[in-house]
Amino acid sequence: MTPAARVQAAIELLDAVIAAARTGGAPADRLIADYFRQRRYAGSKDRRAVRELVYRAIRACGPVPRDGRAAMCRLALEDAALPPLFDGSPHGPAPIGPGEEAADAGLAPAWLEEALAGSAIAGDEARALLGRAPLDLRVNRLKADRATLDLPEPGDVLAAPDGLRFPAGTAVDRWTAYREGAVEIQDHGSQLACIAVGARPGETVIDLCAGGGGKTLALAAAMENRGTLVASDTDRARLSRLGPRAQRAGAGMIESVLLDPGREAEGLARFAGQADAVLVDAPCSGTGTWRRNPEARWRLDPAALTRFAAVQDRLLAIAAGLVRPGGRLVFVTCSLLDAEGAERIAAFLSERPDWRAERPDLPLGRERGAGLRLTPGHDDTDGFFIARAARAC
Ligand SMILES: C[S@@+](CC[C@H](N)C(=O)[O-])C[C@H]1O[C@@H](n2cnc3c(N)ncnc32)[C@H](O)[C@@H]1O
Question: Which of 104, 139, 146, 312 has its CA 20 to 30 A from that of 186?
Answer without folding.
Answer: 312
